[in-house]
Amino acid sequence: MARAIALLLIAFAIFPITALAKEYIVGVADGWNSEVDYYAWLDGKTFYVGDVLVFNYHRDEHNVLEVNSTGYDQCVASPNKGAHDSGNDKKTFKTHGNKYYICEWHCNYSGQKLKVPVLSKKL
């Protein structure tokens, strides 16, 4: 029994839980843009701490702002928790709870925003 526990601890040290993390491309082939139904994209997905969102978009046309619930509800860009404009941004969930993302230029215009519920790590 002690040997099994020791092997399990070694396995977790070598292969941390983050190795079980999934990477999700927001909007898949359509990417992060104003023409995607992100409610439909979220349907059936479960996100956990350690998972990664990948935002692919045309950097001259969009950006990704991490906002709070007010920023999400009202499409307000400031204050924000981070602004990204590389065209290929990766966000790793470090904590559980709702995570909110908007495009500063298209949130009001076309509703380009995403609310992601993140659960604690799966065991």
From TrEMBL:
Cleavable signal peptide: 1-21
Q: Which residues form the Phytocyanin domain?
A: 22-120
Q: Show the InterPro entries listed in the entry.
A: Cupredoxin, Phytocyanin-like, Phytocyanin_dom
The cross-references to Pfam families, in alphabetical order and at most eight, read: Cu_bind_like
| Its membrane topology | Single-pass type I membrane protein
One cellular-component annotation, GO:
plasma membrane
What subcellular locations does the record give?
Membrane
Q: One biological process GO term for this chain?
A: response to symbiotic fungus
- GO molecular function list: electron transfer activity; metal ion binding
Q: Look up the domain of life of the source.
A: Eukaryota
What keywords are annotated for this sequence in UniProt?
Copper, Disulfide bond, Electron transport, Glycoprotein, Membrane, Metal-binding, Signal, Transmembrane, Transmembrane helix, Transport
The record's PANTHER family line, in alphabetical order, gives:
BLUE COPPER PROTEIN (PTHR33021), BLUE COPPER PROTEIN-LIKE (PTHR33021:SF306)
Protein name in the entry: Stellacyanin-like
Tell me the organism.
Prunus avium
